[in-house]
Amino acid sequence: MKSVVVIGGGPAGYPAALKAASLGAKVTLIEKDKLGGVCLNCGCIPSKSFLDGAHRFQTAFSAAALCTTDGLQHAQALFNTRDFSQLKTRQRAATQKLAQGISFLLKKAQVTVMNATACFIDEHTLSVSTAEGEKTISFDGAIIATGSTAFYPAPLDTLRGQIYDNSNFFTMENLPKSMAVIGGGVIGCEMADFLQAFGVEVHLIELQPRLLPQEDENISRVLTQQFTKRGIHLHMGTSVTGAVKTQDGIELTLSDGEKLQVPHVLAAIGRTVDTSELHLERIGVEAARKGVQVNPQTLQLKPHIYAAGDVTGLLQLAHAATRQGEVAASNLCGVPAVYHNERVPRAIYTTPEIASIGLSRTQAQTQGIEIKAHKSFFLANGRAVAQTQTDGYVEWLSDAKTGQLIGACSVGTNATELIHIAAVALEAGLTVAQLREVIFAHPTFAETWGDALK
Ligand SMILES: Cc1cc2nc3c(=O)[nH]c(=O)nc-3n(C[C@H](O)[C@H](O)[C@H](O)COP(=O)(O)OP(=O)(O)OC[C@H]3O[C@@H](n4cnc5c(N)ncnc54)[C@H](O)[C@@H]3O)c2cc1C
Fold first, then answer.
1. Residue in 218, 169, 162 with CA at minimum distance from that of residue 397
2. In this structure, is the dihedral angle defined by the CA atoms of residues 258, 260, 261 and 265, taken in order, positive or negative?
3. Does 147 contact ligand 1 (Cβ within 6 A)?
4. Residue 190 Cα distances to 15, 51, 55, 325, 386, angstroms
5. Does the CB atom of residue 165 touch ligand 1 within 6 A?
6. pTM of the predicted model as reported, rounded to 2 decimal places
7. How far apart are CA 144 and CA 141, in angstroms?
């Protein structure tokens, strides 16, 4: 493959560009906004920076238990001095530093980066709109990595620009006294967690009867208990049927008839794929809100055109996007590679942290697999007890007939790190018997994985 164009410089696009360059292609990366995409600029990194800031105060409160009777007052006094602008400064610095890293890598790999909006003219030509005007670029191969944007169903669509979504949430001036978060999926739960921990009264509204509807019910139950304990107002099985701007903010009408008056609303209802500006019809590809139809293993759309990341709708996670980008570039450049959607770990950075990989109980049951669950609680783990962090558990799912590990989840301290032990085990195709041979250091949270199999 001589010349490759990559459209979009997010977690799918820039690794795709680096991979194609490493395989000898002459690569042009076209990004209309900022390198790093949603993840770096208004997704993963800003949200984790915010969440960590809030969790540091929770740690200060937990340290009060080790102090004299004044400890709680000191922790409260510290909390009262929290400064949202400091949190934003820290987040911007992190984003800037990581963006510099991406630019450095692309430069080193001799990838040409264009700040422009691209669209197809035909199967071998792009039109790019830059600050200096329109240009055309011809290519031998292309990778579409244009990502996704926040989804606004009715009646919220009329308030676009007047309420928050991920594109403007991290630049908000001040934190309000209260906020309604619409959507109890990963983004909604993480942001509700941050807001509550930073002192905002939160109403979390979810259409499904439970939080994190994609995860197993046990996981939803743990998070629901924690959020309820922390005073987050949960409106489960509830939809927003009306939304109007008022003098004091927004009035939401909920499906149970309740009227909710809040100063601000965050829309976290899901993501949508909008490829309209790419003119996919000119290359004979159908656009769809849920993503363009690629081969889910090779990421191929047409013999010389691939897609990667959120735009494929396979799994809207940054590391899935990166792997897809690399696999797409590899295949495009003639080095066969395969993407496995089922081997992508899913991490949720709430308190408690939640992570999972492979099949869930429900998915396994739907596929007719007879499962065996192997669960161990942190309550019985030496390190967790020593550190008084006993909330949570790990769980393996195995095929009851073969003993093959098919899924895992972890909930509690370090869950988003611990899940990678399961990721390695699943990738290696280990069975319960093989994993029992692994020696875990004591005392660690990780040894709970071993305890679960005893
Ligand atoms: C609040 C929030 C928190 C998140 N947290 C996590 C997390 O903790 N972990 C995780 O794994 N995932 C997380 N995600 C999801 C993650 O951000 C996305 O899965 C990831 O960014 C997808 O990468 P991408 O490259 O496919 O698309 P994007 O990151 O959306 O990048 C696509 C890029 O293409 C550019 N583009 C679009 N159209 C054109 C065009 N016509 N011409 C030129 N350029 C174009 C866009 O400007 C954009 O920069 C989060 C998302 C949100 C919203």
1. 218
2. negative
3. yes
4. 26, 8, 12, 26, 27
5. no
6. 0.96
7. 10
Question: Whose CA is closest to atom 12 on ligand 1?
Answer: 317
Is ligand 1 within 6 A of the CB of residue 309? yes
> What number is the average pLDDT over the span 205-227?
94
Give the pair of three-digit tokens for residue 271: 């993501």
pLDDT over threshold 70, residue 1: no
Phi, psi of 108 (to 5 degrees): -60, -35
Q: What average pLDDT does range 193-213 have in this prediction? A: 97
Query: Which residue, 237, 236, 260, 243, is CA-closest to 156?
Result: 243
235 as an active site residue: the answer is no
Residue 179 phi/psi, 5-degree rounding, is -150, 145
Residue with CA at minimum distance from ligand 1 atom 6: 44
Residue 67: which pLDDT band, with cuts at 50, 70 and 90? very high
Take residue 344 and report the two structure tokens written for it: 């992508």
**Residue 87, ligand 1, Cβ within 6 A:** no
Helices (H) and strands (E) in the chain, counts: 14, 23
Number of neighbouring beta carbons within 10 Å of residue 444: 16
Express each pLDDT in 95-112 by its tens digit: 999 999 999 999 999 999
**Greatest pairwise CA separation for the chain in angstroms:** 72
Residue with tokens 């922790």: 75
Closest approach atom of ligand 1 to CA 48: 8
Q: What is the mean pLDDT of residues 297-315?
A: 98
Ligand 1 pocket: which of 5, 14, 38 to mutate (most atoms <8 Å of CB)?
Answer: 38
Q: Is 427 exposed, middle or buried (CB count within 10 Å of its CB: 0-12, 13-18, 19+)? A: exposed
Closest to 446 in 3D by CA, of 358, 355, 381: 381
Q: What is the pLDDT of residues 110-119, one digit of tens each?
A: 999 999 999 9
Query: Is the distance from the beta carbon of residue 11 to the nearest atom of ligand 1 less than 6 Å?
Result: yes
> What is the reported pLDDT for 216?
87
CA of 310 to the centre of ligand 1 (A): 7
